[in-house]
Design brief:
The protein is an alpha/beta fold. About 40% of the residues lie in helices and about 15% in strands. Helix 1 (about 15-25) runs parallel beside helix 2. The two termini are about 25 Å apart.
Length: about 130
């Protein structure tokens, strides 16, 4: 996201997205910022984000309150913060490429089964069933 001028990436999360964001931010040498609702995340999931150095901000409210707040902050380019939740078009397009990457790694041989653990899986399942080649 550095191409877009952001120095930090952020998400609202109840756990799974925060762990993923924190890991990829650390690998990209960027600051990950996670917005969580008060008492709305398990310690195990939160510890994954913290292990990768994410700044974690707990706000009063639930996931929807967190998403509203992080969207508001990300709108101001002065904050240098890029929103990585499923409202992000790059994330949605990336999910479409999952099946392509699986096939490519398997020398274009279809597997019998694909098991995909994760949060927000409803956005991933359709591209796995019918990838977009456009």
């Amino acid at each position: 996201m550095r191409n877009g001028g952001a120095q930090k990436v952020a998400c609202a999360s109840t756990g799974n997205t925060s762990a993923s964001l924190a890991m990829f931010a650390a690998f990209a040498e960027m600051q990950g910022v996670v917005f969580i609702g008060s008492g709305k995340i398990s310690v195990g999931k939160l510890s994954q984000a913290l292990d990768y150095g994410a700044l974690t901000l707990q706000i009063q409210g639930d996931f929807d309150d967190c998403l509203r707040r992080v969207r508001q902050i990300a709108l101001d380019p002065k904050n240098g913060l890029y929103l990585m939740n499923s409202v992000n078009p790059f994330r949605l397009e990336g999910q479409k490429s999952i099946m392509y990457r699986i096939l490519e790694a398997r020398d274009w041989q279809s597997p019998d089964w694909i098991i995909v653990p994760g949060g927000k899986i409803s956005g991933t399942a359709p591209p796995l069933a019918r990838p977009s080649w456009s």
